[in-house]
Amino acid sequence: MKTGKGADERQHTIERFWHNYLSVLEKSNVPKGARRWYRRHIQMYIDTHSGLRLSQHSSLVVDKYLNEKSRMVHLEEWQSRQISQSHVSSECLIARLTVEQETLA
Fold it and tell me: What pLDDT score was predicted for residue 32?
């Protein structure tokens, strides 16, 4: 576990990610009440792939995850749709952050 400056930088990066993600949801007109659920879906995705940095995720990894989720019989159709929509928003954010990082490099 990181301590000190490294931990502070990591925490700042995490906070910035969630701030940016919520901004993307807002710009995409996701209802305010649904945003916490979108965030929850993305947190579950991140936790499932904890060994992989977000910058290393590909659409193939996301597609595989969504396919597995869609096969869960206890999910209602709207829940499956919400999970998919939350991932589309996160892919937009990750693409934007990647472009920003490349621009700064």
Answer: 92
- How far apart (Å, rounded) are the C-alpha atoms in residues 81 and 87? 10
Nearest to 37 by CA among 82, 77, 78, 80: 82
| Distance between CA atoms of residues 25 and 13, nearest Å | 18
Domain that holds residue 16: 5-104
**Domain total for the chain?**
1
How far apart are the C-alpha atoms of 45 and 68, rounded to whole Å?
11
Contacts of 94 (CB under 8 A, 6+ apart): 54, 55, 57
pLDDT tens digit sequence for 20-72: 888 888 888 888 998 898 888 888 888 888 888 877 877 788 778 777 877 76
46-55, 68-77, 83-92: least confident range: 83-92
In the block, which residue shows the tokens 């993600």? Answer: 21
Q: Report how many helices (DSSP H) and strands (DSSP E) the chain contains, helices first.
A: 4, 0
